[in-house]
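WARN no homologs supplied; continuing
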Amino acid sequence: MREKTPVHIIYDGDCPFCRHFAGMVHLQEDYSAVVVNAREPHPLVAEATARDLDLDEGMIVILDDTFYHGDEAMTRMALMMSDNGWLRRLTIWVFASPQRSRIFYPPLRFCRNIVLKLLGHGKIDNIRGG
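OK structure emitted
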């Protein structure tokens, strides 16, 4: 039995959409998902901050020590997701293309920001002054 490649997913735990997405992630059998709430102290959150990756601007996927941010993270995730279920198949279709990811990710981030504001949650603000 081959060892699975870990895929770390840093997401906003206060965002209901992000929480749902992190919960529905089922990767292909070669990968194992490790989800990290960006609002809790974690070494990978600190490393993302040191790399100047703004968690208010997008989620992060870490694969083989490479950090993918925002639309690139969604594309990377889509390429590794299993396709069981219509919502996962739709997610894969939309985000497996870098071009479609660049189009669809910003409106999703905008909706996330509105929902967080309506719920009274502040920004993650891991990049101070950013």
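Strands lie at 5-11, 31-37, 60-63, 66-69.
OK
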